Amino acid sequence: MSAASLPPSPRLLPEIVSQAAEIQALRRDIHAHPELCFEEVRTSDLVAERLRAWGIEVHRGLGTTGVVGVIEGLPGPRAIGLRADMDALPVTERNQFAHASRHAGKMHACGHDGHTAMLLAAARHLASHRDSFAGRVVLVFQPAEEGGGGAREMMKDGLFERFPMDAIFGMHNWPGMPAGTFAIKDGPCFASSNEFHIRIVGKGCHAAMPHFGIDPVPVACQLVQAFQTILTRNLRPVETGVISVTMIQAGEATNVVPDHVTLQGTVRTFTLDTLDLIERRMREMTEQLCAAFGATAEFEFSRNYPPTVNHTHETEFVREVMKEVVGAEHVQAFEPTMGAEDFSFFLQGKPGAYFVIGNGDGTHREGGHGLGPCTLHNPSYDFNDQLIPLGASLWVRLAQRWLAQP
């Protein structure tokens, strides 16, 4: 693996390039043994073993299965946090190459195996070049990004108190964006993730005699349509929000009006003010519309992940380091996505930024891959191993530049 395998001519660290095959093998081993949120025992054991082998101070147990490595450089007052997530998804892999998942129903379909590998490669280099920076690098190997809120749990276990840092940074691979490129954006870049569960209770009866009951089905139909008016008539037109009713469940027989209907779905926003408005209006509409039909309602709204909001100074700092590594022409402005990311919790506690590295168009996949596209959360996905020396080189340069600030 070499710089020549990437479209641009990035400034890769030669030592990282020379070790890339070893880290690739490690990445593929992690891919073959995926573990779901808070179950990353084998993965965290592997990470901790490698860190210790490279002379890095290791701490276990934060967020249940999280691993923290600490690398002390020359004496210096500053500290930087670098984060990689470790968990897999409950997806059955369709790939059949040698490193495909060996555990049915579990798969690294989001590239967390690659994120872990890139940070391990950077950790190895930083540990063997402690005279290249002054201060402390905190390596955060986080569990349970996929719905478990592992970042929040590591914070509850004292991540920032036990390992003080001035800022924290995270990186995600991005399929469809050319390999050899990065993208970043100031402000909101990933949306909040929230779920709702609504139970509309009417009065069941014979379908031939609906006047004896209170039919919750037309109430549910009107409510689904009414929710969309929150976005078109309550939000300012320049604000962004998504309300998706993804599950409707009712009835057991065709000749029976059911006594209840359940609605479930998600809400995504880039700001908490927008989220507050949507939740309030959804609750009001549910209660008042149901009452107008003589039905009652139970409304539950769960806030899972807040929006991921990059800090201005840290965003611009990363952008400049990206330019050093791949050139300004290969640094893009990230287009915000309504997907969610629990790195958002870290950014509520510390300054920092979250950014993406291009994973390519999927042509990197070896023979035996599934027929589906190489997109996130797809059973035919695979991380692009060509990114390992590039991502690791960026991590090293970012740590060195950040710690060198006056």
TrEMBL record:
<dbReference type="GO" id="GO:0050118">
    <property type="term" value="F:N-acetyldiaminopimelate deacetylase activity"/>
</dbReference>
<dbReference type="GO" id="GO:0019877">
    <property type="term" value="P:diaminopimelate biosynthetic process"/>
</dbReference>
<dbReference type="InterPro" id="IPR036264">
    <property type="entry name" value="Bact_exopeptidase_dim_dom"/>
</dbReference>
<feature type="domain" description="Peptidase M20 dimerisation">
    <location>
        <begin position="195"/>
        <end position="289"/>
    </location>
</feature>
<dbReference type="InterPro" id="IPR017439">
    <property type="entry name" value="Amidohydrolase"/>
</dbReference>
<feature type="binding site">
    <location>
        <position position="146"/>
    </location>
    <ligand>
        <name>Mn(2+)</name>
    </ligand>
</feature>
<keyword id="KW-0378">Hydrolase</keyword>
<dbReference type="InterPro" id="IPR002933">
    <property type="entry name" value="Peptidase_M20"/>
</dbReference>
<keyword id="KW-0464">Manganese</keyword>
<dbReference type="Pfam" id="PF07687">
    <property type="entry name" value="M20_dimer"/>
</dbReference>
<dbReference type="InterPro" id="IPR011650">
    <property type="entry name" value="Peptidase_M20_dimer"/>
</dbReference>
<feature type="binding site">
    <location>
        <position position="172"/>
    </location>
    <ligand>
        <name>Mn(2+)</name>
    </ligand>
</feature>
<feature type="binding site">
    <location>
        <position position="112"/>
    </location>
    <ligand>
        <name>Mn(2+)</name>
    </ligand>
</feature>
<feature type="binding site">
    <location>
        <position position="377"/>
    </location>
    <ligand>
        <name>Mn(2+)</name>
    </ligand>
</feature>
<dbReference type="GO" id="GO:0046872">
    <property type="term" value="F:metal ion binding"/>
</dbReference>
<protein>
    <submittedName>
        <fullName>Amidohydrolase</fullName>
    </submittedName>
</protein>
<dbReference type="Pfam" id="PF01546">
    <property type="entry name" value="Peptidase_M20"/>
</dbReference>
<feature type="binding site">
    <location>
        <position position="110"/>
    </location>
    <ligand>
        <name>Mn(2+)</name>
    </ligand>
</feature>
<keyword id="KW-0479">Metal-binding</keyword>
